[in-house]
Amino acid sequence: VDLDIARQELKEFIPHVKNISDSSIKKMAGRDLMRFKEFKKQGMAVKFGRFTQKENKQIRKNVEEFLALTGIDSAEKLLFTSRYPEDKDTIHRLKTEHHFCEKISEGIPRPWRLIYYRARKMFDPNNYKGRYTREEKEQLKKYQALHGNDWKKISELMSRSNLSVAMKFSEIKSAINYGSWTKEETRKLMSAVKDVLSRKLRTENPSSLSSLEQSDTDLWIDREQLHQPLPWTEIETKVGSRYWRQCKQKWNSILTRKLTKGKQLYKGTRGLQTKITLIKRLYETKAEDASEVNWDELSNAFGDVPRNYLQSKFYRLKVSFVPFWKRKTFSEIIDYLYEKKLPELEENL
Question: Which CDD domains does UniProt cross-reference here (predicted)?
Answer without folding.
Answer: SANT
